[in-house]
Amino acid sequence: MSRVKRGVTKNKRRKNILAQVKGYRFDRSSKERIAKVAIKHAGIHAFRHRRAKKREFRNLWTLRINAAVRPLGFSYSKFIDALKKSNVELDRKVLSELAKDHPEVFERLVKIL
Predict the structure, then answer these.
(1) What are 53-104's pLDDT values in tens digits?
(2) What is the CATH number of the domain that holds 90?
(3) How many domains does the chain have?
(4) Nearest-angstrom CA–CA distance, 100 and 60
(5) CB count, 10 Å around CB of 83?
(6) CA dihedral 63, 65, 66, 71 (to 10 degrees)
């Protein structure tokens, strides 16, 4: 059987790992063993935070809508209830953008209810 030398493969793998941790601080950016651990942890956090981002944005939209309807004599829950009863099918993201970027349009929407 012929002998297999692993130099090229090993260096390619190491280069790939270190490329993934470019910008990390201390030994994480220069030492392969520590970099592997850093990549694993970063992947776990990235997965979890992709899920959390959806929750955080929905909370932000709710906050913006609530802040916009309070001066108009509504609370958030009563506003959403009124929207559902009048069959307005705008989601919270769109309502939030209206409240933030086009307050006069949002105010007209509230007056309709």
Answers:
(1) 999 999 999 999 999 999 999 999 999 999 999 999 999 999 999 999 999 9
(2) 1.10.1900.20
(3) 1
(4) 11
(5) 19
(6) 140
